[in-house]
Design a protein that fits this description.
- With 129 residues, the protein is an alpha+beta fold.
- It is built from 3 helices and 3 strands; from the N terminus they run αααβββ.
- A 3-stranded antiparallel beta sheet has the order 1-2-3.
- The longest helix has 18 residues.
- The radius of gyration is 16 Å and the shape is globular.
Amino acid sequence: MALTQRFGIRYPFTLENDDELYMDLNMTREESLKSRLLHVIFTPKGQRLRNPDFGTDLIKYIHEPSDETTFERLRTDITQQVYKYVPDVVFKDISIYSDEKSDNGKIVIIHYTIKKGIHEEEQTAAVRV
């Protein structure tokens, strides 16, 4: 029986696997980095015990005006936190839009690359809040 390498718990948490595991696990390094990226973005600052700086203030921006000033503060917050907690990810662009389906919702699209030695691999993550 061959051993399968896993790369941490998939975020957001799901229970859709055929391996009889309690939670889905990341099967690749790329999936693991995307899970870590989403974990940092969706965790409100101050929520993590003994690491109150972990996370972003994304939740605080949901009810802020949908203007460029708010979007720029959100971009800065996300960029700083991800550089700090997921160092293998390099941002290329962060786009933030108002969600047409909800009054105060935001859509965040992150274009990033994953460091692989001297090479980088392009990735994209879309987040609706």
